[in-house]
Amino acid sequence: QVQLVESGGGLVQAGGSLRLSCVASGSIFSFNNMGWYRQAPGKQRELVAQITKDGRTNYLYSVKGRFTISRDNAKNTVDLQMNSLKPEDTGVYYCNGVRFEKPSFRDYWGQGTQVTVTS
Questions:
Q1: How far apart, in whole angstroms, are the C-alpha atoms of residue 98 and residue 119?
Q2: Alpha helices (H) along 1-119
Q3: What is the pLDDT of residues 17-33, one digit of tens each?
Q4: Rounded to the nearest 5°, which phi and psi values hold at 46?
Q5: Sign of the CA dihedral running 105, 38, 62, 29
């Protein structure tokens, strides 16, 4: 069992920046994908950014060019640098990890951290 713990959320004005961090209680080396999801009130959870084991990244179209995901397998951390924040970025941000555990892939989730962007 691996636990994921997020930090770095908060209240920020539009145009500002925040850096979210996710620390795993164990090694993330074996995780195929690590990512950040968010859920706004009344909306479904959506994938914001994802990074594969070999460093390939994928972003939600609306955050491309503003957010950067990074992964440090040695420190067991996944960070999300968020710049030029907009009110529509508001939501609870969740760290996610996907790992193959026979016979299928398993999702791991953190408890979430609130990000609120004011106009």
A1: 35
A2: none
A3: 999 999 999 888 889 99
A4: -130, 150
A5: negative
